[in-house]
Amino acid sequence: MSTHYMVLGVSEQATAAEIRQAYRRLVLLTHPDRTPDPAAHRRYIAINEAYETLSNATRRAAYDQQLRRLVQPAPETDADTEPHPDPALRRRGYRRAKASARPPLQPMHIRYAAEFRRILPRFRIVAYLSLLSVALLTVDFNRTETLSDETVQEFEYVTRSSKRGSSSYFIVYTQNSNFKVDNDTELEKGDQIRVLQTPWFGKVKTVMIRSGKMQGDTLQISRFDFLWMLCVVVAGSALLFLCVSLRPDRAFNVGFTNSVAVFFLFLYLCFV
Q1: Into how many domains does the chain fold?
Q2: Domain boundary at 223, 238, 257, which?
Q3: C or N terminus of the chain, fewer CB within 10 Å?
Q4: Residue pair 237/131 in contact by the 8 Å Cβ criterion
């Protein structure tokens, strides 16, 4: 059974302000001046009828009382019962109530409408901040700062084990930067190098070796492929959340995806 609350997509405990807000949003989507779809026109009429009832406190109270009468169980009659399976009890006139079908559950976006309305504004803030972060990263990672007179000072040997096996590499430290190289790279302490990195976040792109066994070689440290994949996910989910009119539960899913992607983006910037 469709109720006026279901038509407006609000809970039966919704406030007058929430009902008014839902009505305005739905009317804009279904108004005949905006769409010629006959189904949208029928929905527009139903929306106005629902709002006319729920916006008036007296009419709403009478409607709520009518709904309660509809969901209250009717007095048990013979039509609602069946003979008891125990013969002794059946002879004494005992009857067993028939199993009644469970009432259908309301859609999730209606059952949890209040919770969605409380969380979605926070996701909106995260979406704006994530777009700003992607813009800053794009500017920074497309620029290059050159450190011309760097000297290899320390090495840190790192070994990592996983189900697929173990891997090892060196972290090289200079006066103003650090970067990872393969464990067979023949850099030595005191080698002179030139480091090309991003100016704001200091992520090393390329290393040019100016002295030592590898003099004249160039090491490509990172092209940041994983970073750009994260940026695409962050920007795409943020734009989808902000620019597309989604049902509350779907908007929640998109906003949650955006928040998780931003979290991994900052993990990458801090630890990779």
Answers
A1: 4
A2: 223
A3: N
A4: no
Write down the H helix ranges in the chain. Answer: 4-8, 16-30, 38-54, 57-71, 87-91, 108-111, 113-141, 225-243, 248-271
Q: Distance between CA 150 and CA 176 in Å, rounded? A: 7
Check whether residue 117 and residue 231 sit in a common domain: yes
Tokens of 78: 């013979």
Q: What is the pLDDT of residues 231-269, one digit of tens each?
A: 999 999 999 999 998 888 889 999 999 999 999 999 998
Q: What percent of the chain has pLDDT over 70?
A: 85
Q: In whole angstroms, what is the distance from residue 184 CA to residue 193 CA? A: 17
Tell how far CA 243 is from the center of its chain.
Answer: 14
What six digits make up the tokens of 210?
Answer: 């100016």
Residue 71 has pLDDT above 70, yes or no: no
State the pTM of this model: 0.58
197: containing domain: 144-223
Burial of 47: CB neighbours in 10 Å, binned 0-12, 13-18, 19+: buried
